[in-house]
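Hi there, hope your week has been kind to you so far. No rush at all, and the record is pasted right below.
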Amino acid sequence: MEDFIIKVIINGEICNLEKIIILSDLLQSQGYDVKRVAVEINKIIIPKNQYISTIINDGDKIEIVQFVGGG
């Protein structure tokens, strides 16, 4: 069986994924709190209610913005 690699760009850095993954799982694997981020894939903002149904595809350009509280 051939190696299955999905190449994506996350916040400007090339990332190789070894399997098909949904956005919510990708965020969790990267250490993000899903409630505190905004995500854009290929210049389209993804609504939070679609994180569990959005499949990451080969060649996707993903931007993740994390919200930080403070005063």
About this structure: The chain has one helix and five strands. The first helix runs from residue 23 to 29.
